[in-house]
Amino acid sequence: RDLGDDMDALAANYSAVMKTDDPATLQHALNGMHDAALDARNGTPPKLKGQPADSAQMKDFRQGITDLIGQIEQAQALVQKGDIKQAKAVAAQFKQTEKVNHAKFR
Ligand code: HEM
């Protein structure tokens, strides 16, 4: 799957995350986001096409995805602990990471 497919998967699972308070449904959707983000990290934004994989911008792109993965893992750990309220609060912060990185790379 290409980066666009991974982004679509991120969006579909994110909307599921924000819609539910059921721990199993939440964890499933977070897992879907995690898989999509891991795959996205191997991709190249169309804007950066042709750049070497180790260019400053490509590194910055991968860092943005890594930041999101860190937040997803934080939310997953909170669901694991049964703290759904805090997990959802962390998930609400994904939006800011999306915004910052879309401004740079989309
Ligand atoms: C919750 C987090 C995020 C969501 C829900 C999200 C969602 C989306 C969606 C729906 C698209 C349009 C996909 C399409 O063209 O079919 C998109 C595009 C894109 N996003 Fe994200 N995104 C997220 C985070 C990020 C992050 C962290 C980065 C970079 C570090 C990023 C980089 C991009 C890029 C480069 C595109 C353009 C892809 C293309 O045109 O092929 N996104 N995103």
What does this structure look like?
With 106 residues, the chain is mostly helical. It is built from five helices and no strands. The protein has a single domain (3-105), classed as Cytochrome c/b562 (Four Helix Bundle (Hemerythrin (Met), subunit A)), CATH 1.20.120.10. Helices cover 76% and strands 0% of the residues. The model has no long low-confidence stretch (mean pLDDT 98). The structure holds protoporphyrin IX containing FE (HEM).
Write the layout of secondary structure elements.
Blueprint: H1 3-19, H2 23-40, H3 56-80, H4 84-92, H5 94-105
Helix pairs in contact: 1-2, 2-3, 3-4, 3-5
Bound molecules: protoporphyrin IX containing FE.
Low-pLDDT stretches: none
The number of domains:
1
Rg on CA atoms, Å? 14 Å
CATH architecture: Up-down Bundle
Mean pLDDT: 98
Q: Which CATH class?
A: Mainly Alpha
**What is the percent of helical residues?**
over 70%
Roughly what fraction of the amino acids lie in strands? under 5%
The strand count comes to: 0
Q: What small-molecule ligands were found?
A: protoporphyrin IX containing FE
End-to-end separation in angstroms reads 17 Å
Regarding quaternary structure, how should these chains be classified? single chain
Name the CATH superfamily assignment: Cytochrome c/b562
Reading the helices and strands in chain order gives HHHHH
What can be said about this structure in brief?
With 106 residues, the chain is mainly α. It has 5 helices and no strands. The model has no long low-confidence stretch (mean pLDDT 98).
